[in-house]
Amino acid sequence: MITLVLGGTRSGKSEVAESLAAGIGDRVTYVATGSSSDADMAARIAAHRARRPAGWATVEAAVDLPEVLAAVDGPAIVDSLGNWVAAHADLAPDATGLCRALGGRGADTIVVSEEVGLGVHAPTAAGRRFADALGELNRAVAELSDEVLLVVAGRVLPLSRPASRGRLEPTD
After folding, report:
1. Which pLDDT score, from 0 to 100, does residue 137 have?
2. Rounded to whole angstroms, what are the CA distances from 80 to 49, 90, 133, 171?
3. d(CA 69, CA 78)
4. Which of 40, 84, 122, 130 fits a disulfide with 33 by CB distance 3.0 to 4.6 angstroms?
5. Which residues contact 142 (CB under 8 A, 6 or more apart)?
6. 39: buried, middle or exposed (CB in 10 Å: 19+, 13-18, 0-12)?
7. How far apart are the C-alpha atoms of 11 and 17, rounded to whole Å?
């Protein structure tokens, strides 16, 4: 089963993913895509580590996320796709490779990602390319996910699949 957990900054999406994973079992691999680039990021990473159960393994992945994920046995959390996209200087991550790795896993996988479509329009070309790349990646991962959750202010909203690819008709 693949679960995509989307949310904005500080929405609680990582805590939701960790709670879901805790229900899967004691042996979970946490695939971390972020790196400590400044004091704030170091503090965020430390907070994430402190919340994890002692029995969980941590594996770090940068641009090689598809390969790393494909090599992980058992349940896994990937946190987060936004960091993975940002790690690509050209903002062109291997979305196809990631989706192939996710689809090829035999164990539950929880993917955490930032929902960029709810924020302020990026004022720079690089910011817009990042939002576009992450938005397209989120849609691709959502398409193959069994469950998609949106976390807003710590509250979880399950998202359903579109009824159809065509135009939605109003109902009476």
Report:
1. 97
2. 14, 18, 14, 37
3. 8
4. 84
5. 4, 148, 159
6. exposed
7. 12
pTM, 2 dp:
0.91
Q: Which residues pair with 60 in a beta bridge?
A: 32
Asked if residue 93 lies in contact with residue 63, where contact means CB atoms within 8 angstroms, the answer is: yes
Catalytic residue among 44, 48, 88, 100: 48
Q: Is the dihedral of CA 149, 80, 116, 163 positive or negative?
A: negative
Cα–Cα distance for residue pair 15/52, rounded to 1 Å: 10
Q: Per-residue pLDDT tens for 112-165?
A: 999 987 778 888 999 999 999 999 999 999 999 999 999 999 999 999 988 765
> From residue 57, how far is each of 26, 27, 91, 92, 122 by CA, in Å?
10, 7, 28, 28, 36
- The set of residues, in sequence order, having a beta carbon less than 8 Å from that of 80 and lying 6+ positions away, is 13, 14, 33, 34, 112, 113, 114
121 is catalytic: no
- Give the Cα separation of 100 and 144 in Å (integer): 10
Structure token digits, residue 104: 């090829």
The domain made up of 2-159 is a member of CATH 3.40.50.300: yes
